Structure formats: structure tokens, C-alpha cells
From TrEMBL:
<dbReference type="InterPro" id="IPR029060">
    <property type="entry name" value="PIN-like_dom_sf"/>
</dbReference>
<dbReference type="Pfam" id="PF01850">
    <property type="entry name" value="PIN"/>
</dbReference>
<dbReference type="InterPro" id="IPR002716">
    <property type="entry name" value="PIN_dom"/>
</dbReference>
<feature type="domain" description="PIN">
    <location>
        <begin position="1"/>
        <end position="118"/>
    </location>
</feature>
<protein>
    <submittedName>
        <fullName>PIN domain nuclease</fullName>
    </submittedName>
</protein>
Length: 125
């Protein structure tokens, strides 16, 4: 199975303290490919810096054979702009870019963000 993955999913996989860790690891084990938008890599770096975690861990993440980094493009940006009514918080724009990536690739999205997941199902078609 292949999915586009959100930042919080990757954090949950690698952080044993995360409340969704067990579920994330179970999902991770079932994946063949995890498509990671560039914006998610940027968000991971912000998360690691904020929590004083060595950003070098991103190299380890990228070396995992399941990880497929996906470039974001202007179509993703326009999608976010076209759906600006859903932007309520500073990170919602990034979430829309992740959602657009999943739509563009025709892949399901894994996220533990309930609002993003609801929006994904609403805008999936």
C-alpha cells in the first residue's frame, strides 16, 4: 500500500512518547511506500529545531527505502490559495499543500490531524 504521509504521522512513528506511536508504527509496517511532500520535510525540520532534536535525523528518515520524497509544485500552491477559506491557523496552508499532493498523486493520506482528515475526505474528489 502507498500513502502520502503528513508530518504528525512521521513524528508519531519516530517518537515513542507520542500518543499515536503504536498506531503509527502499525500503519508504517503495513506501508510499501510513504510519499513525503517537501513541505513535510520542512515541517519536520521546524519540529526538530523547536524540540532541540538534531535535524540530522532527517537524513536517517530519507534513507528509509519506503520514503519517496515528492516535490510540491505550483498546482499545490494554487490549490491552497483556492481553498483559503479553510485556513484558520498558520499551518493550515501547509496542510492544504499536503492534501493537494495526495489528490494530485491519487493516493490516500495518512494524518493524525482530524481537521485535515475531514477536509481530505470532503475535498477528495
Amino acid at each position: 500500500m502507498s500513502f502520502v504521509v503528513d508530518t504528525n504521522f512521521i513524528v508519531a512513528v519516530i517518537s515513542e512518547d507520542d500518543v499515536s506511536h503504536d498506531k503509527a508504527v502499525s500503519l508504517w509496517d503495513s506501508l510499501n511506500e510513504a510519499y513525503v511532500p517537501i513541505i513535510v520535510i520542512a515541517e519536520l525540520s521546524y519540529f526538530f529545531i523547536r524540540h532541540k532534536i538534531d535535524v540530522g535525523i532527517i537524513s536517517e528518515i530519507l534513507r528509509d527505502s519506503k520514503i519517496k520524497v515528492v516535490e510540491n509544485n505550483v498546482q499545490d500552491i494554487y490549490f491552497a490559495i483556492d481553498h483559503k477559506d479553510y485556513i484558520r491557523h498558520y499551518d493550515d496552508f501547509n496542510d492544504l499543500i499536503v492534501l493537494s499532493t495526495a489528490r494530485r498523486l491519487g493516493l490516500p493520506l495518512i494524518t493524525f490531524d482530524d481537521e485535515l482528515l475531514d477536509l481530505y475526505h470532503k475535498l477528495k474528489s
